[in-house]
Amino acid sequence: xxxxxxxxxxxxxxxxxxxxxxxxxxxxxxxxxxxxxxxxxxxxxxxxxxxxxxxxxxxxxxxxxxxxxxxxxxxxxxxxxxxxxxxxxxxxxxxxxxxxxxxxxxxxxxxxxxxxxxxxxxxxxxxxxxxxxxxxxxxxxxxxxxxxxxxxxxxxxxxxxxxxxxxxxxxxxxxxxxxxxxxxxxxxxxxxxxxxxxxxxxxxxxxxxxxxxxxxxxxxxxxxxxxxxxxxxxxxxxxxxxxxxxxxxxxxxxxxxxxxxxxxxxxxxxxxxxxxxxxxxxxxxxxxxxxxxx
Length: 294
Prior knowledge:
Elements: E1 24-25, E2 35-43, E3 49-57, E4 66-68, E5 76-83, E6 88-93, E7 103-108, E8 120-121, E9 133-137, E10 143-148, E11 155-160, E12 166-170, H1 173-179, E13 186-195, E14 198-206, E15 220-223, H2 238-241, H3 247-255, E16 258-263, H4 272-275, H5 285-293
Parallel strand pairs: 15-16
Antiparallel strand pairs: 1-2, 2-3, 3-4, 5-6, 6-7, 7-8, 9-10, 10-11, 11-12, 13-14, 14-16
């Protein structure tokens, strides 16, 4: 809208007939001031629609144009920061359909150096392996504190983006050493066939002495939650990040119970075709998928 004349121009039309729209409007005054960033659904052909990072122009006298900075079946989860000097967008996303992980990526706008036009995973280079990351950026988006919350013991690193500095702020080595003296349960992440042409990620927590020969029978306990866009089967460390849910570790380690968290239809990170069956059907498909998984 023109604040002097109070005249407004329609920017873009968005329509959804088979689910929720979760478009989020983010960074404004982009690349010269006449564009903004948003997370929007993009049609990826037979794979369906996936949430992507988009750049939308906002001219005063015409409708806007949408340029998708990301595409494909690696779904964008949420926007994190924008480097206005180098025209780089940082966001959480999924890679290789592994919705049990949350990784940090960056991609450039059309004004960025061409080397940044393809999304790059920033957290994938962290060691020990970091499958669930939280990022806190400086105001310039030149520095970031990466908090790795799993699958290993959580740790924090101060990272100079495109620089040489990586300083460990907290490695929790004492806790890591203490855990090494304990008989801990083991975890595994598997795709489970739930019918209707779908597969769901499931987190299994096994007793440390688990016998996979079939000679021993174990109780099996499901944690049946699958709210819209939620994820329960994640590599996030439950003991520190989700203490109320660490009872599954206790059951496995003390009572030899196998616990399972299954992310069926309706959960996030796997596109609209997987998310939308719950639309206007809550209390049906997510329960069916838990039963099918069992």
